[in-house]
Amino acid sequence: MMKESDMAAASRPSPQVSRRTMLSWTGAAGMLAVGATVLPACSSPMPPTAPGTDANGLFLRPGFTSRIVARGGEQLGGADYRAFPDGAATFPDAVVPGGWYYVVNHEVPGGGGGVTSVRFAPDGTVTGSRLVLAGTTSNCAGGATPWGTWLSGEEYDGGWIWEVDPTGATRAAARTALGTFSHEAAAVASDGRVYLTEDKSNGCLYRFTPDRPQDLSAGLLEVACGTAAPGAVVWRAVPDPSATVGPTRTQVADALHFDGGEGIDCLGDTVWFTTKGDVRLWEYTLSTAQVAVRFQGGAGQTLDAVDNLWVDDASGALFVAEDGGNLELVVIRPDNTAEAVVRVQGQEGSELTGPCFSPDGQRLYFSSQRGPATAAGLPLGITYEVTGPWDQLLGRS
After folding, report:
1. Residue 324: Cβ-neighbour burial (10 angstroms; 0-12, 13-18, 19+)
2. Pick the residue with more confidence: 212 or 44?
3. Peptide bond into 230 cis (omega under 30)
């Protein structure tokens, strides 16, 4: 019998695959048979005298080590690990104290995407994995909710947000009220609303106010409007979130447009998001309804490309993954200094995705979306774990 989620997916228009997704799976898909004011930007580059990469091809800071958790197309914990890993998050294991779940999207087009959940024991051993969402398209980024679910965004014009249980005990649900558009990332802020980015060169910033707290089945979708960004933001309702009369980003005349919305995360009164076209890290303040440029990246900067974003609550540091550039994970500290903490060597056709920490903050996870995998070295993606003196490096209290 067709599941409810599969029936919903089948009722949508055929996906229109984005140029970036096309680039990400060219060649591999056939084998799979099917993805304000700018503060001063002080930089701390990866030391040019680094002795070289570790055994896994990573440049790391002194005292840090890495391991490969999974490769696309290979077995992991009794299940196949799908290709093109992207946005990710971790969740405490309520059954095994000290254990956790790591959930990761797969940006595979044509209904071949989904979400994998990997279960870890307290000592970091992988004890199992399972596909907790399947039959979806180009699952790119997303975000964790305070109530313990994962929001997975489909990155194409007919895309939805799917709410996923990391344990797989509850069936994933399409949250269509959050809009039909090329979803990138989502974050639940302190006001209880979900803030969403759109991966288009004229994409918008959205927010969703649920009718009932922590229930995303119904509510109000709004788009950020104003005269210019940076500047003041006014929120206006999107007339047709289902996009049957036209794209959501064109339905409100004074909607603000951002050049390729990517990662988004929040802490306290602030929402941060990145835009790849202009290599910017933006900052939206809830209390003042102002959007400003927090950091300007680009050529010659430590941050020379942007994609997924994750905030370390304990230190306020922002981890930005590079799509292109020199494939680094860059930390933007509260004082706006930038420091590369990981660089992937020899995978120039890839992008870095899904930075996040284990719940105890000691294990950093991220993926090289098109890193070489399988015995044949197909570009299906690699997921890494990096351990070391993170408390000291980030200045956690």
Report:
1. middle
2. 212
3. yes
Task: Provide the β-strand partners of residue 89.
Answer: 103
* Cα 158 to Cα 17, 106, 137, 397, distances in angstroms: 10, 17, 9, 43
Asked whether residue 23 carries a pLDDT value surpassing 60, the answer given is no
Tokens matching residue 328 = 């680094």
Q: Taking the model in full, what pTM does it have?
A: 0.90
List, for residues 52-97, the tens digit of each pLDDT value. 789 999 999 999 999 999 999 999 998 899 999 999 999 999 999 9
Tokens 């060597």 sit on residue: 345
Tokens of 385: 């774990």
Distance CA 118, CA 128 (A): 6
Sorted by sequence, the CB contacts under 8 Å of residue 160 that are 6+ apart come out as: 12, 154, 174, 175, 176, 178, 180, 183
Q: Which CATH number fits domain 4-394: 3.40.50.300, 3.40.109.10, 2.120.10.30, 2.60.120.650?
A: 2.120.10.30
Report CA dihedral (281, 350, 194, 131) to the nearest 10 degrees: -160
Domain segments of the chain: what residues? 4-394
pLDDT in tens, 273-322: 999 999 999 999 999 999 999 999 999 999 999 999 999 999 999 999 99
pLDDT score recorded for residue 16: 52
d(CA 306, CA 367): 14
What backbone torsions phi and psi does residue 245 show, to the nearest 5 degrees?
-95, -5
